[in-house]
Amino acid sequence: MTRMSARWAELRENMAVSVAPSPFSLESLRPGDTLVVWRLDRVGRSLPHLIDTVTALQERGVGFRSVTESIDTTTAGGRLVFHLFGALAEFERQLIRDRTLAGLAAARARGRVGGRPRTMTPAKLRLARAMRAQVPPMSLGAIAVELGLAKSTVARNLSAAEDQEGER
Q: How far is residue 16 CA from its own chain's centroid?
């Protein structure tokens, strides 16, 4: 074993980490425990994430209490407030989705098309087909350089054009 490989083996041994849960992780909570947080934003990155986390805790028999918002899922009133938050979050997500779809439909009605503009225009495709039909035919790479496109773009579009001609 060389000095370098021995050093790597030593580094690998020292880098081994324990996979045991930390004493403050959510996995360490047992049925009957209550997770107490100062604020709701300490538990989840977003409201849907918070709801998923608290629901998972409830399924494991773990309570949840937020000191600032006075929410305690170990009581009926606390569960009601928490589920109202969940219903409002779902309602908000649906509104955003509906507005987005309506905006896309309105843009399409105005003739707007989303997405990245195509680099292979119909004129460039005609030129590429003509270059490929020459005797001897130009290579895909040469055609790509000539048209200022990627070789894969030329190949994909020529292949698609040939497939469409074959169907006719």
A: 30
Using CA atoms, how far residue 150 sits from 7, 30, 117, in Å, is 45, 57, 15
This prediction's pTM:
0.47
Specify which of 32-41, 48-57, 138-147 reaches the highest per-range mean pLDDT: 138-147
CA distances to 59, 72, 73, 135 from 78, in Å: 16, 5, 5, 80
Sheet strands (E) in the chain? 34-37, 63-66, 71-72
Given a contact cutoff of 8 angstroms between Cβ atoms, the answer to whether 162 and 128 are in contact is: no
Residue 73 and residue 79 in contact, taking contact as beta carbons nearer than 8 Å = yes
CA angle 99, 100, 101 (to 5 degrees): 95
